[in-house]
């Protein structure tokens, strides 16, 4: 009898332990593959929309970053250097800075030696809306989207985007 009770207790503890350790993704932790990136047509860099208006299918890698977030800033440098060294006709890179101070953004680009034509800094209202609608309150993300704004990959590596070329 004690063995059955002990077994049932151990089984219950095991179930509780495994369910407690499973990660629970909240809505604020980012968008998922298959989601449509909100308001893609309104984001432009250098007077060019992020999504191609011509008939050739193009993808866009959009990386959200801020100077105050070391990880996202380092990833912005990495992606900028990657696309500068190996330009792709099928994928365009855009860095979207979420810095509250435009002067910090400009100085950071100069310090990091990142080309400004692939970057954009959002104003305060756009920044707040972007962080809320795109799930960037906990962590900055990188989204690979197709020409319709549908997310094909979240936080991909350079090796992972190669399969989309």
Automatic annotation (TrEMBL):
<protein>
    <submittedName>
        <fullName>Uncharacterized protein</fullName>
    </submittedName>
</protein>
<feature type="signal peptide">
    <location>
        <begin position="1"/>
        <end position="22"/>
    </location>
</feature>
<keyword id="KW-0732">Signal</keyword>
<dbReference type="InterPro" id="IPR036249">
    <property type="entry name" value="Thioredoxin-like_sf"/>
</dbReference>
């Amino acid at each position: 009898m004690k063995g059955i009770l002990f077994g049932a207790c151990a089984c219950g503890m095991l179930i509780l332990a495994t369910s407690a350790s499973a990660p629970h993704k909240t809505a604020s932790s980012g968008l998922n593959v298959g989601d449509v990136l909100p308001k893609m047509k309104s984001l432009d860099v250098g007077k060019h929309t992020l999504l191609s208006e011509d008939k050739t299918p193009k993808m866009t890698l959009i990386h959200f970053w801020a100077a105050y977030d070391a990880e996202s800033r380092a990833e912005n440098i990495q992606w900028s250097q990657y696309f500068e060294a190996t330009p792709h006709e099928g994928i365009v890179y855009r860095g979207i800075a979420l810095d509250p101070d435009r002067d910090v953004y400009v100085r950071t680009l100069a310090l990091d030696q990142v080309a400004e034509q692939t970057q954009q800094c959002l104003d305060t209202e756009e920044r707040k809306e972007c962080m809320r609608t795109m799930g960037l309150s906990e962590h900055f993300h990188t989204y690979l989207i197709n020409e319709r704004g549908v997310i094909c990959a979240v936080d991909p590596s350079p090796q992972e985007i190669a399969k989309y070329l």
